Amino acid sequence: MRWLSFVLLAFPICTLAQxxxxxxxxxxxxxxxxxxxxxxxxxxISLPWVETYDLRTETRDFDFGQQEYTFRMQPSxxxxxxxxxxLSDQLLQLPEAxxxxxxxxxxxxxxxxWGSLFxxxxxLQFYQALDTLYLQQERLLLQTLGTNxxxxxxxxxxxxKRSEVAIAQQELLLERQLIADQNDLPNSIFDFxxxxxxxxxxxxxxxxxxAAPPIDPxxxxxxxxxxxxxxxxxxxxxxxxxxxQLRYVGPHDDPFRERxxxxxxxxxxxxxxxxIKIQELRLKQGELExxxxxxxxxxxxxxxxxxxxxxxQIQALLFYRQTIAEEANYLNQLQSTFTQNDGLxxxxxxxxxxxxxxxxxxxxKMQEDIFFDYLKYLETAQIFCQQPYVIHFRSE
Length: 396
Prior knowledge:
alpha+beta; four-stranded antiparallel β-sheet
């Protein structure tokens, strides 16, 4: 135990020469290689004015001197080309889901790690003070050896307490080292001077509820894509010029028979397949709109629950702090009264200090739960993952 205490005291001394790692430095290290929007795809296709070229040839009775040739072109239309261009541009706007998911996951990991480091540092200080206090209690018990005041049960309980503190300290130290190594910041000291507090979290949660509900980019993309496909199908249905044709019938001596002829073909589109295709796309649009409504209801429900949960936890923490403050004030008055009357035993002083440290550890754990539920709230509200990233655990 003395060796562990020496390590805790020596660790800050060994790192004094290093610059403290602030939130800005930590997140810059974590998000390196993840920043920046993906490069847009610039491969815009060239849409033709003529969609098909058709060359046909035929002869009669294998008389190749009388060979006939027909050249046919199927044109596009301005409305159809505009619909094609709109559909093509929409396809190029496909959300880069995998890259964004990796970016958001890394940002969430960085917040979890930074918050964990803050509470590890905070709780390590409390446990170190608690270990020092137990050493003082042990010295008092040593004074009872060989006297009638010796109580074996006190030795037993104190040894268990010291073991529990040593285990808790070691777990926190290992977790701290693991987080630092995972983020390529071994043997670093961290600066939490601008870490956010619960009052700021409470204000932000209350303000964030007034924000407009988020729109799923993938769902919006699919809805717009379906509309572009409908527009294209409708544009094709209104293309009345079918094809233009140039025909050459070959050399001949008949003055009443023309050698060249030009023809145009018109059509009145009435394709059942196209109507079914448009109906299918409209049904898909309806499904996407219904899904958006259900997603909105689920989003409102989850957000409300998380908001109330965070606010309720904050109220519980505030009540806990108030109650503990009243208790500490009472014990301090008690200590002062007995000290003036020379009636307060040293052990009671240590018990009061122990109670204060244990209360602070419990309050730190309650606060830790609030901070990570706050992350869940931000993630659900879809205001957590932004580019450039925002450090939500930093006080503005």
